[in-house]
Amino acid sequence: MLVHFGGQERSVAQFERLAETHGLVLDSVTEVADERCVLEFRKHPI
Fold it and tell me: Which domain of life is it from (predicted)?
């Protein structure tokens, strides 16, 4: 698990594109607080 606070603000679509370049796909998004959410990624099926 990777937790990151601070840094550059990104949209879910931007995270999807960033992850895709590293062989990951977005599996789910869970809102946990105001303007905070958990993004779950998994390896892209080959």
Answer: Bacteria
